[in-house]
Amino acid sequence: MSMTETQTPEVEAPLAPLYRLEGVTRTYQQKGRVVKALAGVDLEIAAGEFVTIQGPTGGGKSTLLQLLGALDRPSAGAVHLGEIDVATASNAELGRIRAREIGFVFQGFNLIPTLTAAENVDMALEPLGLSKTERGERVAEALAHVGLADRTDHKPGELSGGQQQRVAIARAIVKRPRVLLADEPTGNLDESMRDEILALLQGLNAEGLTLIVVTHDSAVARRATRRLRLDKGTVRDITR
Ligand code: ADP
Ligand code: MG
What does the record give under GO molecular function (predicted)? Predict the structure, then answer.
């Protein structure tokens, strides 16, 4: 359609936030005392961002990631993820979101040692109700995407740390999630493997995947599009 003088030019709508957190607190009971892991967090994250979360141990990073992953609910406040509020959604709805929309990557890889790389990745597709053929295709595609097309039948013990983390990333992306959440994904890796994983994550972000990564590693944070610091349950933007 051609633009004429009578038409108002189309203004690009601002990106709808993927996450919108409002006044989020999370308290825990510890030996009869109340610990405030998150103390009033307001935060928006748009689709396509690469956000890192740094900060001291005990600052609330893992607590925040669990809320973003719909693994936990806030004590007060709202955690909007797309159309749902993690605070009030049913358990079934949170389960559906975790299975389809969110990929998780952990410091310790969390692979099942008795299963091959392909079988570990395939497990993430179990809840999606796909045909066996489509599952096979998706698993092969995900492992190729992380550069492990030639390691599909290897078990975790037969792979390097970097390769194991690649399998874990393939398991996270095979469901085609809206966001990938990672808690210290390079924490158990030496420097060269860290750089490999970092390049892989950056490539996924360049393809449009939203990344939220908890890290102590400033080399990881330097690649982010936005850097947050979480200390005493409070978030601060430290992007320069
Ligand atoms: P980080 O990941 O930044 O190290 P956490 O989110 O794990 O921080 O912890 C934040 C605070 O909440 C800490 O004081 C921690 O002891 C407390 N905490 C975290 N999880 C629990 C829990 N399940 N039960 C009780 N206290 C917890
Ligand atoms: Mg932690």
Answer: ATP binding
Q: Which sequence spans correspond to the domains of the chain?
A: 48-72+90-237
pLDDT tens for each residue of 89-136: 999 999 999 999 999 999 999 999 999 999 999 999 999 999 999 999
SS3 113: coil
Q: Which fold has domain 48-72+90-237?
A: Rossmann fold (3.40.50)
* Residue 27 CB less than 6 A away from ligand 1: no
Could you tell me the distance, in angstroms and rounded to a whole number, from the CA of residue 151 to the centre of ligand 2? 31
Q: Give the closest residue to 46 by CA, choosing from 237, 225, 235.
A: 225
Mean pLDDT score across all residues of the chain: 94
* pTM summary value: 0.92
Residue whose Cα lies nearest atom 15 of ligand 1: it is: 58
Q: Is residue 30 in contact with ligand 1, taking CB distance under 6 Å?
A: yes
pLDDT digits (tens, 9 = 90+) for 6-47: 555 566 555 668 999 999 999 999 999 999 999 999 999 999
DSSP state of 62: H
Residues 110 and 172: beta-carbon distance below 8 Å: no
By the 8 A CB rule, do 227 and 238 touch? yes
Exposed, middle or buried, 218 (CB in 10 Å: 0-12/13-18/19+)? Answer: exposed
- CA–chain centroid gap for 49, Å, is 11
Residue 240: predicted pLDDT: 82
Question: What's the rounded Cα separation, in Å, for the pair 101 and 114?
Answer: 27
Q: How far is the CA of 8 from the centre of ligand 2 (A)?
A: 50
